[in-house]
Amino acid sequence: MSDRILYGYWRSSAAYRVRIALNLKGLSYEQRSVHLVKNGGEQHSADFQRLNPNQLVPVLVDGQMTLNQSLAIVDYLDDTYPEVTLTPSDKQQRYLVKAMAQDIAVDMHPLNNLRVLQYLTNTLDVNDDQKSRWYANWIIKGFDALEQRLQQTRGKYSVGDQVTLVDVCLVPQVYNAKRFNVDLTAYPNILEVTASLNQLPAFADAIPEAQPDAV
Ligand SMILES: N[C@@H](CCC(=O)N[C@@H](CS)C(=O)NCC(=O)O)C(=O)O
């Protein structure tokens, strides 16, 4: 038992980010699964809404602290457990890392979130082909820009040779894109960086299929 609890779901990319960050820092945690589809979605249950009224995973409970929003959680972990930090101390690098992470987590990911896709299908009557085009559109817009930027910033990883918050956001986004069959051949930098990251145990242990609630 750990007094650190991560409420998440194996296929949630935002929870995947937090798993990577916890693993990189060597912090143990108990996982509690919030099934995003079963029974209309457990994220909508009264119990879960007490933890996060926004009805989204992840939520991290760490002692007295209960936090949602994966980027805020990683920030909190960096402040609280600074032995391994995911934002560089150099000011210019630090804000570059934050901006690139937000390019993925703020500008790309929410457009393809489950509730957005469900709204397209269930309320707007969008068909499967249109939904796939919607999905791919936002991946391509985001990855076109990221691919360009990586030409300037990358080393072994997204920004130089240290693992940063950008990497924590990138790997789950690439996982999602592959899951939805988006063609990524135009993004050699993204694919190379992701391949290097996935060799690290902290990333390998966080993959969705390795989680206890994976089906
Ligand atoms: N900005 C939030 C996003 C959280 C989020 O979108 N979580 C998704 C899974 S990746 C979710 O819970 N979706 C449930 C739904 O759409 O109903 C974060 O970074 O934590």
Give a structural overview.
The chain is globular. It starts with a strand and ends in an 11-residue tail after the last helix. With 215 residues, the chain is an alpha+beta fold. Helices cover 52% and strands 8% of the residues. The longest helix is centred in the middle third of the chain and has 26 residues. Helix 1 packs parallel to helix 3 and helix 4 packs antiparallel against helix 6. The mean pLDDT is 97. It contains nine helices and four strands, in the order βαβαββααααααα. The protein has two domains: 81 residues, Glutaredoxin (3-Layer(aba) Sandwich); 112 residues, Glutathione S-transferase Yfyf (Class Pi), Chain A, domain 2. Strand 1, helix 1 and strand 2 form a beta-alpha-beta unit. The chain has a four-stranded mixed sheet with strand order 2-1-3-4, with helices on one face. The structure holds glutathione.
Please give the CATH architecture of the largest domain: Up-down Bundle
How many independent structural domains? 2
SSE series = EHEHEEHHHHHHH
> What is the structural class?
alpha+beta
What value does the average pLDDT take? 97
Ranges where pLDDT stays below 50 over 5 or more residues in a row are: none
Bound ligands, named by name, code or SMILES: glutathione
- What is the first-to-last residue Cα distance? 23 Å
Strands of the widest sheet, in order across it, are 2-1-3-4
Taking the sheet with the most strands, its summary is: 4 strands, mixed
**What's the number of helices?**
9
Question: According to CATH, what is the class of the largest domain?
Answer: Mainly Alpha
- Helical residue percent band: 40-55%
- The name of the CATH topology of the largest domain is Glutathione S-transferase Yfyf (Class Pi), Chain A, domain 2
Rg calc: 17 Å
Count of strand segments:
4
Query: Outline, from the CA principal axes?
Result: globular
